Amino acid sequence: MTADLVTFGETMLRLNPPAGTRLETATTLEFRTAGAESNVAIAAARLGASSVWLSKLPDSPLGRRVTNEVREHGVEPRIAWDDDARQGAYYIERGADPRPTTVIYDRADAAITTARPAELDRDAIRDAAVFYTSGITPALSPTLAETTADLLATARAAGTTTAFDLNYRSKLWSPSEARRAYESLFADVDVLVAAERDVHQVLDREGTAEDLARGLAADFDFETVIVTRGDEGALGLADGAVVDQPAFETDTVDAIGTGDAFVGGYLARRIAGDGVDDALSYAAATAALKRTMEGDLAVVTPAEVERILERDGRDIAR
Fold first, then answer.
1. d(Cα 141, Cα 120) in Å, to the nearest integer?
2. Which of 69, 63, 119, 125 is nearest to 88 (CA)?
3. I need a surface site. Which of 54, 78, 157, 294 has the fewest CB within 10 A?
4. What is the residue extent of each domain of the chain?
């Protein structure tokens, strides 16, 4: 099957106690899956884009648990299986003011860290409309840094649009390490998504969101730059034109995965033929919906997204 969107990266098991319960006293843990690239694929698939997720997993009940949930939401997993590797996981204790949320990762030596291009379905990337990965992936191991570069180059050579989200994680590497790795990949990136704070901290750039977008586009020849600004929304730059997209107000149940929902919504609509302005509106509405639900996944429908847009006065024909 030829997919509209192909993503590549790690998906972990997410384990968390009920809200208000501390990990050290918990007697039960909710059991979900979570990973930036599969989150994006799931959001896009639920919004109409045929999606494939590439990864490497242990051939075990835990690895199969991951693929079962990804498949349940309409994404086709294409997996390199490993008989001896382990499944990455993370534990999250959700906070409430003044206690912050705590995340503990247990992902060392996970199967994904040894994934090489020859193990993965590169033909799916060549045939796709868009290939997406994030800055989490090359941070996980030197092998994955090489594999990420290879897959982006493979996509670029085939004429597949490449999308890359910085997704900086301070628990994985330093800003200087991340900057070197990111900039080594930028030549093969068409669409860059970056949080404003990461552009300041990691790419060491100053200025407004528009200044940042224009500077990055000029220096690295990106087709599109999207600078996300949390509660202030996002700014997109394409063909020299700027689109300023406010965030939609929402009650937050679980904020984790909001950025992935945004990217999934954006890519789904760009693949469907929308312009950057309409795709950004769709992305912002998808992100708002994600914040209302538990877990990392944007379990949304097009009708729900479009109701938010209609309420906001946006008339986007489908």
1. 17
2. 63
3. 157
4. 5-10+36-86+112-311
When the candidates are 2.10.260.10, 3.40.50.2000, 3.30.450.40, 3.40.1190.20, the CATH number that belongs to 5-10+36-86+112-311 is 3.40.1190.20
Q: Is 165 a catalytic residue?
A: no
Distance (Å, whole) CA 5 – CA 269: 11
pLDDT per residue as tens digits for the range 39-56: 999 999 999 999 999 999
Q: Give residue 7's region: left, alpha or beta (phi > 0; psi -120 to 50).
A: beta
- For residue 193, the SS3 value is strand
pLDDT for position 104: 94
Active-site option among 260, 274, 278, 296: 260
Torsion of CA 153, 215, 140, 43, to 10 degrees: -80
pLDDT tens digits, one per residue of 191-214? 999 999 999 999 999 999 999 999
d(CA 222, CA 183): 12
pTM of the complete model: 0.95
Cis check: omega of the bond before 98, within 30 degrees of 0: yes
